[in-house]
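Quick start: what a row looks like.
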Amino acid sequence: MWNSSLYKSFLLKREIGKHGGLRFMVMYILKDGPKNGAEIMDEIEKVSRGWWRPSPGSIYPLLSTLVSEELIEKLDDRRYRLTTKGETKVKEFSGLMHKNEMSIEEMLDAIDNYISYFEDLGSSKLEPYKERVEQLSKKLGALLK
């Protein structure tokens, strides 16, 4: 028999794969309050540090779909906000994201992988970050004292 939280996790992952991450990103942005389409695009661009700005051709049809699915509603001032149903979906998705926390062993593996990457970069590229690397080294060394 399926564990209910495991089953919910499976369903959410399937839904993300089916619909793409943009719908959840939009809903997650709207959890902080109403925004219009342009503000949503600005926020996605900000969060991605300028790497990605969705087009109006992807945002506005998605907003219409989310309205028809009653996950968001369009306000008179042309902004959108989450419905109760949408808030529930965001909470479920947020819970799924936090359940994917790493174990200590996985964190140590990740640190080891980054150290290997830094070794490949070479000391000349790390020179501007020397003080920061030394601080981190001291913090790691102090953990076992």
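That is the whole record. The CA atoms of residues 64 and 74 lie 9 Å apart. The chain has a mean pLDDT of 83.
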